[in-house]
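Example 3.2
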Amino acid sequence: MSAPPAQPPEQSSAGAAGKAAEPGLLMDQFLPRCDFAVVHADVLRAPPAECNGAASELDLFQAPLVATLLGIRALPQRVVGTLRGRGKTATLQASRRTFRFKDMVGLGWILLGETPSVEMVLGQVSRPWKAVAASTDAPTTPEQFTRFDEPGFAKIAASLRIDPYGNCSSILTIETRVAITDDMSRRRFRRYWLVISPFSSLIRRMALRLLATELRRSAPGRPSNGGLGS
C-alpha cells in the first residue's frame, strides 16, 4: 500500500486515489476504485484445484512469527475491549485455534463474493487507525458494503485468487484494497499504514512461503522450489 494499485506481483502500492484496477476481477464488483492497495503473488508448482484446497485450509498460526505479528496487531482492540468489560469478546478471540482466510468471516469481515475454486473476496468497514476499529453500523451485506460512504471510515476489501499457469502450476494472488471516505481519514490512514505496512507485507510473504511448503509436503516428488517466486 504505497504506490498506484496496478503494480507487478510482490509489490506494494498506495496513494493512487481514484485509480481503477484492471477489469475482470471479482473484487472490482465491490471496490473498483481505491486509495491504497497492496498485491502479493507467487507461482506455485501445483494445479489450481490442489492449490485452492491447500490455500483454503492454510492456517497462519502454524508459523509462530506470523501468529505473534497477528497478535500484536489485535492487541489494542483486546486491551480496550477488556477495559470496557467486553471480556467475552476478548476471550473468544484469544481462544481461536486457527487463522485461515475464511476464518476472518465473522471477525469483523463479511463475505462479499466468491467464484468457487478461483476467488474469494472479503470486506469490512472500520477505522484501523483507532484502538477500536470496528463500526457499530458496519455493513453486514455486500450491497451495504458497496453503498457505504459515511465519512470517517476505511472500506477494506481483501481477496484470495488462484489462476492456472501452464499445465501444472498456479498463480496465487493476495490483494487488499482500501478506499477512504474523507480527506481527514485518508491522512490518518496514511500515517497508520506507514507503521503497519512492513509487518503486513511480511505476513503475506510468509503465508506464500508456508503454502509452498504445504504443497511440497503433499507431493514429496515435487521440486524443492515449490513457490517459483519465493
